[in-house]
């Protein structure tokens, strides 16, 4: 049977941290799932004292009485085969395995071990993060190992985190209970490319995220210490812990043997992909409640380590444990005392075992989580979503590993990942939840088509009178996109019914979607008439007229078009849209005088791309691009005239970027320029961002757009971004840099880093660097912006050029102390490459 409970919180390092920790601890959940599989005993000849793993080998140091180390090969399913043993000169106090040599990316090969034998009582607990941790005033120095591969000069000390615990505010009350153990760093890598010769590339692991875990006897803390240092999770243990080990999927703690879920993959996913948490992609939040899985009982656990899919556990049962375990029951107390005295001393001697415990495969545990979630579908929807989120993160972790694409279970994990996305999409589309908008990105990540999503609802009866916001949000966005998918008549009619019941005012937009080409016109008109009875509008009338054309009913078409005086039709309009239904040969031009742009934009977004739109106003251009220029003209006209739209636009800039290929994400340097406020930029901010989005896209014909954009040439920062975007699209990077250096030098480096790539990369050092040097010299160092930009560009160029090439670019009359650090940086980089 499944169990769900909440654990109570414990103290932290400061008042704010205590409150945060208490909140996180109160949100720990307990699920009856099975993370552990079979277990085997390592055939040690002597009692173990220390052990460590190295690749596929296990080293076991004997207890103090026997000075030796046994070596075992770890085979599949945890089988251990003795490889041999060797003697040591004395008892082994500590043992660790490390790879030969030190490389910049091999962080996983080195661990940090701390022993705190003394405790200093301080006035109050402290937590310092990032740069603030230097305030702890604890000096750190690097000591040489005297190894030839050490490369000590390439290492530097960086303070990440300082946290101090004091017993006076601890819920446990004793110094012993505030001692730290199990300090561990967990790196997460991504795969990059490294050029090692002419047209040759090899894979290179690059550090993506870094996590730090440490534990007190009753509570553990997991921090992200990569780009941003922050507390991710706090773990409250059910009993006193001896040791813990962190993996990308779980935290294993030896109270007995406890398993907790972790949020490393959720944090790393956001470091890896900036599209996470948008309408394109999603991932369960880092703040998602952690949960505890089923405990595996062992007597006297002492030490633990993790390797691949194995947990290695050392147990030693003390005399007290054995006595407690063998204590007679109440009914046996009447037996003679001689029976107790007859026990030999050997029966009470401590026992030990070294276990290798196989963890359940990711796919098996994923299936169990999914099955478990179904028990809560109709009872506790929040718990159902939580379990499916755990299942999603479980399969996401191995997929993020750089070795994933070489693994044998790659396809099975990818299927499970897509399936988990579909399950989460189902939850957010069917449950009444505040995060309903997540239905869209999860369904997108699942790879399901709109038709397949609708068919997942087929089991639900047509008598349903309400549909949740998540489904409407997903369908609205999906049907408004330029999809090539055509829904069947049955599914298109089902969509009509869904929107009629849930959001009837969206019906005109949905009906004009290219996906709805097969919709029954009679059914569409029936629903439109019902909506029109309640809230008539011109858009509803135009949609009914459009359906009349599809049916070939010219009488109905004339009646609808003549029902509003604001609508007129002609063949010589400035903003025409030609509609040529397949069932008719008539040519129709629609023009609405009061909301010309909004109506055209509506028709553009929902009609263009279908076979209904075949005629074009300019035979040399496609209908899409021609209308895009007309939309651009409308934006420019309103911006230059400071004219706001008469009605609220149907879509925001973000909506257009997410739903229409013609609108691109606005470049970072454009956003930076617009952040430098100008009086000319305060009017029409939405139109400005939409115009910039078009120019950042890949569809606009820049040459054709130049005359249209001319009125904005001198329009402050808007004009600057428009001119630079056009110059860049035409390949005139040097001209773009000149414009930026004249009007916004602070944006020049950001522009260069974003735009100067591949063949245009040389512009960075041949144009931008000399220009910055010259302009800085002419201002006599009175322009901090230029100096800052010059330092930044020198740092970039020093990483890319050979030393002599870099030196040749520097001005002969330059100030040596200013340029020397960058020369040294360039030189040291080359030395580092040679040592590797």
Descriptive account of the structure:
The structure is a single chain. The protein is of the alpha+beta class and 836 residues long. The chain contains 28 helices and 23 strands. Strands 2-19-18-17 form a 4-stranded antiparallel sheet. Helix 20 (685-696) runs parallel beside helix 22 (716-729).
Strand content: 15-25%
Q: What is the end-to-end distance?
A: 56 Å
Q: Name the overall outline.
A: flat
Strand order of the largest sheet: 2-19-18-17
Brief synopsis:
It contains 28 helices and 23 strands. By secondary structure, it is of the alpha+beta class.
Keywords, please?
single chain, 836 residues, alpha+beta, flat, disordered C terminus
What are the SSEs and their pairings?
Layout: H1 15-26, E1 29-30, E2 36-41, E3 48-54, E4 57-62, E5 68-74, E6 80-87, E7 126-129, E8 161-164, E9 181-197, E10 200-215, E11 219-225, E12 229-236, E13 244-246, E14 250-253, E15 258-261, H2 264-272, E16 291-292, E17 301-307, E18 310-317, H3 319-325, H4 337-341, E19 351-359, H5 362-374, H6 381-399, H7 410-430, H8 439-446, H9 450-455, H10 469-480, H11 489-502, H12 507-511, H13 521-534, H14 538-551, H15 554-561, E20 567-568, E21 578-579, E22 588-589, E23 591-592, H16 596-607, H17 623-641, H18 653-659, H19 668-675, H20 685-696, H21 702-709, H22 716-729, H23 733-743, H24 748-755, H25 763-778, H26 784-798, H27 803-809, H28 816-835
Parallel strand pairs: 1-16
Antiparallel strand pairs: 2-19, 3-4, 4-5, 5-6, 7-8, 9-10, 10-11, 11-12, 13-14, 14-15, 17-18, 18-19, 20-23, 21-22
């Amino acid at each position: 049977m499944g169990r769900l409970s909440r654990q109570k919180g414990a103290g932290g390092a400061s008042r704010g941290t205590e409150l945060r920790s208490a909140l996180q601890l109160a949100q720990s959940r307990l699920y009856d799932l099975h993370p552990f599989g079979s277990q085997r005993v390592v055939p040690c000849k002597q009692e173990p004292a220390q052990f460590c793993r190295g690749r596929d080998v296990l080293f076991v140091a004997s207890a103090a009485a026997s000075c030796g180390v046994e070596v075992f090969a770890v085979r599949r399913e945890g089988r251990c085969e003795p490889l041999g043993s060797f003697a040591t000169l004395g008892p082994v106090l500590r043992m660790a395995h490390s790879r030969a040599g030190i490389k910049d990316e091999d962080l996983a090969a080195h661990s940090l071990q701390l022993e705190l034998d003394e405790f200093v009582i301080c006035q109050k607990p402290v937590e310092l993060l990032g740069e603030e941790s230097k305030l702890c005033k604890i000096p750190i120095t690097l000591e040489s190992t005297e190894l030839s591969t050490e490369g000590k000069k390439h290492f530097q000390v960086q303070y990440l985190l300082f946290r101090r615990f004091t017993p006076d505010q601890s819920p446990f009350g004793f110094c012993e209970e505030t001692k730290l153990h199990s300090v561990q760093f967990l790196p997460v890598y991504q795969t990059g490319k490294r050029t090692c010769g002419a047209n040759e590339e090899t894979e290179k692991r690059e550090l993506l995220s870094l996590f730090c875990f440490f534990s007190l006897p009753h509570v553990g803390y997991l921090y992200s210490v990569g780009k941003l240092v922050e507390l991710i999770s706090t773990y409250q243990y059910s009993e006193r812990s001896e040791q813990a080990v962190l993996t990308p999927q779980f935290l294993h703690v030896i109270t007995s043997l406890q398993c907790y879920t972790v949020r490393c993959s959720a944090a790393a996913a956001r470091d890896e992909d900036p599209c996470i948490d948008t309408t394109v992609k999603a991932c369960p939040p880092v703040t998602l409640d952690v949960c505890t899985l089923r405990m595996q009982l062992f007597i006297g656990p002492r030490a633990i380590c993790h390797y691949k899919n194995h947990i290695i556990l050392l147990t030693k049962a003390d005399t007290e444990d054995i006595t407690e375990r063998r204590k007679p029951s109440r009914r046996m107390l009447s037996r003679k005392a001689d029976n107790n005295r007859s026990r030999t001393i050997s029966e009470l001697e401590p026992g030990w075992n070294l276990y290798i415990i196989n963890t359940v495969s990711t796919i098996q545990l994923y299936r169990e989580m999914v099955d478990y979630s179904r028990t809560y579908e109709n009872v506790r929807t929040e718990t159902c979503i939580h379990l499916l989120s755990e299942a999603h993160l479980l399969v996401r972790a191995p997929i993020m590993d750089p070795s994933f694409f070489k693994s044998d279970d790659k396809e099975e994990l990818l299927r499970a990942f897509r399936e988990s996305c579909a399950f989460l999409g189902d939850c957010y589309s069917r449950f009444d939840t505040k995060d309903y908008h997540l239905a869209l990105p999860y369904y997108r990540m699942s790879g399901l088509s709109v038709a397949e999503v609708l068919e997942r609802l087929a089991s639900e009866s047509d008598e349903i009178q309400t549909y949740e916001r998540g489904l409407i949000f997903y369908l609205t966005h999906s049907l408004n996109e330029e999809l090539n998918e055509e829904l069947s008549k049955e599914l298109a009619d089902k969509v009509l019914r869904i929107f009629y019941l849930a959001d009837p005012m969206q019906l005109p937009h949905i009906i004009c979607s290219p996906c709805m080409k097969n919709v029954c016109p009679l059914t569409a008109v029936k629903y439109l008439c019902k909506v029109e009875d309640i809230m008539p509008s011109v858009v509803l009338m135009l949609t009914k007229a459009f359906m009349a054309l599809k049916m070939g009913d010219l009488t109905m078409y004339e009646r609808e078009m003549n029902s509003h005086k604001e609508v007129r039709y002609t063949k010589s309009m400035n903003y025409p849209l030609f509609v040529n239904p397949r069932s008719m040969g008539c040519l129709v031009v629609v023009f609405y005088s009061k909301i010309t742009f909004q109506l055209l934009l509506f028709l553009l977004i929902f009609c263009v791309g279908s076979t209904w739109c075949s005629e074009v106003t300019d035979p040399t251009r496609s209908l899409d691009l021609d209308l895009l220029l007309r939309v651009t003209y409308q934006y420019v006209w309103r911006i230059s005239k400071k004219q706001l739209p008469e009605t609220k636009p149907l879509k925001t800039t973000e909506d257009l970027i997410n739903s229409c290929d013609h609108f691109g994400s606005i470049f970072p340097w454009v956003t930076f320029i617009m952040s430098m406020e100008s009086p000319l930029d305060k009017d029409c901010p939405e139109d400005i961002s939409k115009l910039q989005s078009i120019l950042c896209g890949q569809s606009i014909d820049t040459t054709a757009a130049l005359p249209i954009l001319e009125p904005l040439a001198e329009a402050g920062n808007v004009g600057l971004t428009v001119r630079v975007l056009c110059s860049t699209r035409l390949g005139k990077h040097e001209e773009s840099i000149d414009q930026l250096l004249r009007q916004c030098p602070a944006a020049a480096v950001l522009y260069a880093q974003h735009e100067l790539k591949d063949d245009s990369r040389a512009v960075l050092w041949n144009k931008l660097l000399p220009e910055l040097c010259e302009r800085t010299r002419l201002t006599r160092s009175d322009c901090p912006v230029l100096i800052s930009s010059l330092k930044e560009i020198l740092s970039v160029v020093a990483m890319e050029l050979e030393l002599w090439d870099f030196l040749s670019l520097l001005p002969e009359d330059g100030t040596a102390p200013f340029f020397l650090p960058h020369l040294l940086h360039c030189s040291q980089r080359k030395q580092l490459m040679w040592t590797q």
